[in-house]
Amino acid sequence: MSATDSTTETQEFDLIVLGAGPIGETLALAVAQQGLKPVIVEHDLVGGDCAYYACKPSKALLRPVEVAATTQHLRGVGGSRVGADDLLKRRDEQVSNYDDSGQEESLESSGVTVVRGHGQLNGERTVEVHGSDGAAQTLRATRSVVVTTGTTPNIPPVFEGIPVWDSQDATSVQDVPAHLVIIGAGAVACEAASWMNSLGSKVTMLVREGSLMSSAEPFVSDILTDQFSDAGIDVRFYTEATQVQRPDGMDQGLGKVKGGPVSIRTSEGETLQADEVLLATGRRPALESINLESIGLSADDVLEQRTPDWLHALGDAGGKHQLTHMGKYQAKQFAAGFLGQQVDEPSIEPPTPQVVFTDPQVASVGLTEEAATEAGYEVVTGEVDFADVVGAGLLRDDVVGKGKIVVDKTTGYLLGATLMGPETGEMLHAATIAITGQVPVSTLQHAIPVFPTASEIWVGLLDQVTGWSRTGYEPVT
User: Of 3.50.50.60, 3.30.565.10, 3.90.105.10, 3.30.420.40, which CATH number belongs to 3-47+100-152+285-338?
Assistant: First the structure.
C-alpha cells in the first residue's frame, strides 16, 4: 500500500527520532528543552532494551546475587542465599512490571511527541509509521532524522529457525530451566551464567575460543573460570554447537522455556540434553527494518557514515559502541551541534568504560596491554592482587581479583585500566577521568587514596609504573 492511500495528513517536526531507548530519549529531551518540536517513534516499550531487557534488569538480578555471595565470604554475618521468587519480583519492580506508561507520560509532558508503531524511511526526511492496528501516518522532519534503533541478536546458522532464548529472555526469565546451555563467552553470557546459576539452573557454557571475555586482560578469564568452576558452572572451551534439534519447540513468550528439550551435538562429539539454550553470541545494529533502500542506502552506508546530512545514526545503531552510557554521550554531543550550541570537543577520543557484574566484578576502561601494543605504543604496566590490599580484605575475607594499568612509556599517560575485584565498578571512574584528562602517572602518584579502602590498589599500581621507591623517584619517561 502506498503512502498516499494509507496515511493521514503529514505531520511536521524539527526532529524525528526512530527508537525510544535512552539515546533517543536523551536527544529528544535536549531538543524539546530548547523549544523545538521533536517526535520519537517506538514500536515496543518506551525506554528501550536498557530499561526493560538489558542494563537495569540484569543488574537488578545480579546485585542480590553479589550481596549473598559476599555474606558467605564474610565472617560475622552468617551467610544468606538468594530467594528466587523475591529476586524475580525485584527485577519486575525495577522494570516497572514492563509498563512504559510512566516514561511515555514523562516525555510527552516535556514536549516530546511519542508515536507508537514501526517507523520506516519513505523518502528524504520522511518517515512512515505503521501502528499495530494497521493504521499508518506520515511524519516529516524539517531538519533531521536520527536512527537510535539499538541492536538485534546475531543468530548462528545452526540455530536458525529453532526457538531458543536470547538476552531479552534471560533478563525476563519466568521459567527457570533445570539445565541451561549458554552459547557465548562475553559480558551477557557471563552475567547470565551468574544469575541463572543462583536461580538454580545447572549452567553449561559452550565457548568457541579458549577464554571468557576474550577482549579483556587475560587474567580476567583465568579468575572468572576458576570462580565459575567453584560455583558449579561448567565452562567448555573450544567447543561449538554443530547440530541442534528441538522437535517440540515453540515461542511461549519472553522468559518462558520455549517448548520441549533441546538436543545439542557439540564439536567434541558429545550430545547435550538441555531444557533451554541462551544465545549470547553478540548483537548487530538494527538497521534492516527501517527501509534504507527507499533513499538508496544500505546498512553499511550508515555504519560507515555515508549518509545525507539530514540522516544520522547514534548509539548501538551507529555501530560504534554497544553501551548505553556511550550512546547517551553521543546524543548530548549531537544535540549541542543540532541546537547550534558550542560543542566542547575532547582532546582525545573518549575512552570506553565498561563493568561486567560477575563475582568478582570486571571494570575496565581504555586499552589492554595487547591492544595498546598493537596500536603502536611502547608501554609499561603494573599489576596488583586485590588480596594484597588491606581495604579490599575488609570487604571480603577471601578476596579474589587483580588490578592492572597500562601506561604510555613516552608520555606517562594512563592508556587503560582493568580492575577485577569487589565493587570495582564504583572505582572505575577515577581511571576514566585520568585517561580523559591525560593526567601523567607522575601526578596521579600524589592523589592519595583513603586507608583502608580497596582504592588503595592504586598505590601499588602507580608505584610499579612510576619507579617510586624508598631510594627515590624516577619518572616513567
Answer: 3.50.50.60
Cα torsion angle, 327, 331, 337, 338, sign: positive
Classify 256 in phi/psi space as left (phi over 0), alpha (psi -120 to 50) or beta.
Answer: beta
User: How far apart are the C-alpha atoms of 36 and 113, rounded to whole Å?
Assistant: 11
- Say which residues have a Cβ less than 8 Å from residue 309's Cβ, sequence separation at least 6: none
Asked if residues 281 and 153 have their Cβ atoms less than 8 Å apart, the reply is: yes
As a whole-number percent, the residues of the chain with pLDDT over 70 amount to 96
Cell of 80: 544468606
Angle between helices 22-32 and 101-109 (to 10 degrees): 20
In this predicted structure, the answer to whether residue 3 has a pLDDT above a threshold of 60 is no
Model confidence pLDDT, tens digit, residues 337-353: 999 998 888 888 899 99
> What is the band of 405 on the pLDDT scale with cuts at 50, 70, 90?
very high
What residues does each domain of the chain span? 3-47+100-152+285-338, 157-281, 354-466
The string of pLDDT tens digits covering residues 310-369 is: 999 999 999 888 899 999 999 999 999 999 998 888 888 899 999 999 999 999 999 999
Nearest to 268, CA basis, from 206, 325, 314: 206
R_g of the chain computed on alpha carbons:
24
Q: Is 138 helix (H, G, I), strand (E, B) or coil?
A: strand
Listed in order, strand segments (DSSP E) in 224-301 are 234-237, 241-245, 262-266, 271-274, 276-279, 283-285
Signed CA dihedral, 300, 301, 304, 305: sign only = negative
